[in-house]
């Protein structure tokens, strides 16, 4: 079951931003190839992921260490965010960062007003505002408040979506996750990742 407090366990991986070992929640880029461990952020650095990594990339939220790394020689999902000011300012020649600081306030202001029209939290049944968490296995959608409180299956991982998502892209990404994770992300029966 999902707990409101993350388990404080060492993932055996350093954060690609602050270079410190990751304990507790780890975020792995879902858009970057991950032949070994991929691009990872600790929970502190993920809060400002748009300043240290491509703001068009989404992250998997891993609340505890996994028994088997999530690896792929190609991007696990295609980009699904709708283009906006943050994508224009990003230096695509440097995927590890170099997001232009002058646009940070634009991104922060956009995230405060972010809405996902037609996407409802499966727990509180309100339209999701701000961060949207989608289960990579069963497609459960949660708002940021309910994601902290939910008793969802702890063996599932969530895709943390922090920008407006193209609905066409989301359908395609769901099919990609089915292949990458080796199961039907929308099925009722979900096999644990770890």
Automatic annotation (TrEMBL):
PROSITE patterns from the UniProt entry: ZF_ZZ_2
One Pfam family from the record: ZZ
Database matches in SUPFAM superfamilies: RING/U-box
MF terms (GO), sorted A to Z: zinc ion binding
Taxonomy, superkingdom: Eukaryota
Statement: the UniProt record of this protein carries the keyword GTP-binding: no
Sorted UniProt keywords: Metal-binding, Zinc, Zinc-finger
Domain ZZ-type: 10-67
Keyword Disulfide bond appears in the UniProt entry: no
Gene3D superfamilies noted in UniProt: 3.30.60.90
PANTHER family hit by this protein: SEQUESTOSOME 1-RELATED, ZZ-TYPE ZINC FINGER-CONTAINING PROTEIN
Designated name of the protein: ZZ-type domain-containing protein
